[in-house]
Amino acid sequence: MALDTEGDSLHHYPERLALVQLAVPGGEVWLVDPLAVADLAPLGQVFASPGVTLVLHAGDNDLAHLKRRHGLRFASVFDTSVAARFLGAPATGLDALLATYLDVTLPPSRQKDDWSARPLSEAQLRYAEADVLHLGALRGRLSEELGRVGRLAWVEEECAALAVQPVAERPADPNAFAGLRGARELAPRGLVVLRELHALRERLALGADRPPFKIVGDETLVRLAQALPADRAALAGIPGCTPKVIGRWGEALLEAVARGLALPEDALPVFARQPRARIPGAATRRIDTLRRWRAGAVERAGLEPGLLLPNRLITAIALAAPRDVEALAEVDGVRRWRAETFGREIVAALAAV
């Protein structure tokens, strides 16, 4: 069964799951409205069935939404984007893969549409249908190619991990403002003002049911914390503070700046940088060795560096310092296909450090 979803993150806040598309071989397509049908448990029974493989394209977010918001489980998935990457495809977008392998042209993109608006237009219905209609046939063609080059088992292992990958809840981060670009260059007073502005934007976004970036952009928040405007005239001189922004939220922005400025000096919080984990010198040398090995291996295998051996695995392997393939295979995330195909080379490269 083919699966895709549409959200409304460009138009509403917080984002909602706005559409679920399903298709089976033979051309039957269903569109499920999760805004009208809140309980998707019956679909969960299908998705968790051992006899059903769900075919998706770049399905990380689709699966995450359904796992986190609806508690669904998945027995088996096949991601056509993952498959294309293991074939070294120069372009892995669904439109490119359908054109290459099936000579199919998708309708014009509707990704920027508000998918929570009802009724859906005819163009939206055709787009939603096309996103799942050909996935089964595409899976077949990609599987043939993967079998020919001996990488079908690699993709199946990656997809099996994707199916069961847990999705943790995202707790609100009270220090999220400090991660904005340019925030760390602010003086302590500016950081306090930025904290007030960031909290204000969150409240405004929730109240207006609009994404935060449509209230005030990140860069504008940081500029406000730098400039510390005291009136509307000063606001007007800050890029991003358009007449529309000032008209709607100007007073609230000025009040947030004033709250940050009013905090007594001895009450200013200290925003400490998170210290980076220290990596021993021997492990650092192993990291450099693994990166050099990867540079040559990607040329031979025709795979992206981040697919063959992502940086997080390079660090994990360097810290574990495995001395044989069996120990390498036990490093979390290495997967069987990497250990079996490249394990001896990796262990030999580490032994030479």
What are the SSEs and their pairings?
Elements: E1 2-7, E2 17-24, E3 28-32, H1 41-47, E4 54-56, H2 60-70, E5 77-79, H3 80-86, H4 94-102, H5 122-133, H6 135-149, H7 152-164, H8 188-208, H9 218-227, H10 232-236, H11 243-262, H12 281-301, H13 305-308, H14 311-320, H15 325-329, H16 336-351
Parallel strand pairs: 4-5
Antiparallel strand pairs: 1-2, 2-3
Any overview of this molecule?
The protein has 353 residues and is mostly helical. The protein folds into three domains: 2-164, Nucleotidyltransferase, domain 5, CATH 3.30.420; 176-267, Orthogonal Bundle (DNA polymerase, domain 1); 281-351, DNA polymerase, domain 1, CATH 1.10.150. Helix content is 53%, strand content 7%. The strands form two sheets. Strands 1-2-3 form a three-stranded antiparallel β-sheet, with helices on both faces. A two-stranded parallel sheet has the order 4-5. α8 crosses α9 (218-227), α12 packs across α14 (311-320) and α12 (281-301) packs across α16. The model has no long low-confidence stretch (mean pLDDT 95).
In short:
The protein is mainly alpha-helical. It has 3 domains: 2-164, Nucleotidyltransferase, domain 5 (2-Layer Sandwich), CATH 3.30.420; 176-267, HRDC domain (DNA polymerase, domain 1); 281-351, HRDC domain (DNA polymerase, domain 1, Orthogonal Bundle). Helix content is 53%, strand content 7%.
